[in-house]
Amino acid sequence: MQRHVRDTFVKQSRYQNYRSRAAFKLIEINDRYRLLKPGMIVIECGAAPGSWTQVIVECLHLKPPDCHKTGAVIALDKADFAPIPGAICLPKTDFTSHISQAKILSALNDRKADLILSDMSPNVSGQHDYDHEHQGNFLAKIFNGNQTEKLVKDLSRIFENVRQVKPEASRLDSTELFILATGFKGRHNNEEIL
Ligand SMILES: C[S@@+](CC[C@H](N)C(=O)[O-])C[C@H]1O[C@@H](n2cnc3c(N)ncnc32)[C@H](O)[C@@H]1O
């Protein structure tokens, strides 16, 4: 009980420093897997309002005045967000557009990324039916083989519809196949897939 009270207090006091409580998700994952280290080049997609970026800046020691010279975080979001000291912020940058990808490459400045993080999610309207219809889809090319059936079965657990698509433009003698999954249903906590 005492520990719970102490942890809650610590969390609350830390919360004051972050732009949103999403920070704690990254803190928890990083505590478990030790992903973020000084000197790393990190690309962070879906960064607004910026609490993950704040955590990354801390862990990479990019925070002025103890800025680490070799590391960097490139934080982008299609929405606008206020700059975070120590981070390279790219607001109004939609990850899916070519222009944005060129912006990211330019910010990388010939460096290679050590870690790519994404907390991207579509904006929800609050209307369940609408959001349900507009939830995530997935399209990926695979080479058809003995694991295709398993992949389709695994995806069927988390998507309403899973189709195997062979476009006419794809050569018949090629094993190339596309898996299209629509209507993301979400996952239960700790559910193992794929
Ligand atoms: C849950 S929020 C991220 C919160 C953030 N990790 C934090 O700690 O403050 C999800 C973000 O993904 C962004 N997003 C969704 N699709 C995107 C895209 N195609 N390109 C860039 N950002 C995107 C949204 O604008 C939204 O700000």
Description:
- This is rRNA methyltransferase 2, mitochondrial.
- Belongs to the class I-like SAM-binding methyltransferase superfamily. RNA methyltransferase RlmE family.
- It comes from Euroglyphus maynei (Mayne's house dust mite).
- The active site is at 141 (proton acceptor).
- Residues 18-134 form the Ribosomal RNA methyltransferase FtsJ domain.
- This protein has 194 residues and is α/β, with parallel strands linked by helices.
- The chain folds into two domains: 2-118, Rossmann fold (3-Layer(aba) Sandwich), CATH 3.40.50.150; 128-184, no CATH class.
- Helices cover 32% and strands 20% of the residues.
- It has six helices and seven strands; from the N terminus they run ααβαββαβαβαββ.
- The chain has helices at 2-15, 23-33, 51-59, 98-108, 128-133, 148-158, and strands spanning 41-45, 72-76, 88-90, 115-118, 138-143, 159-165, 176-184.
- The strands form two sheets. Strands 3-2-1-4 form a four-stranded parallel β-sheet, sandwiched between helices. A three-stranded antiparallel β-sheet has the order 5-7-6, covered by helices on one side.
- Helix 3 (51-59) links the parallel strand 1 and strand 2 (72-76).
- The protein is globular, with a radius of gyration of 20 Å.
- The protein binds S-adenosylmethionine.
- S-adenosylmethionine (SAM) is lined by residues 19-20, 22-23, 45-52, 76-79, 94-96, 119-122.
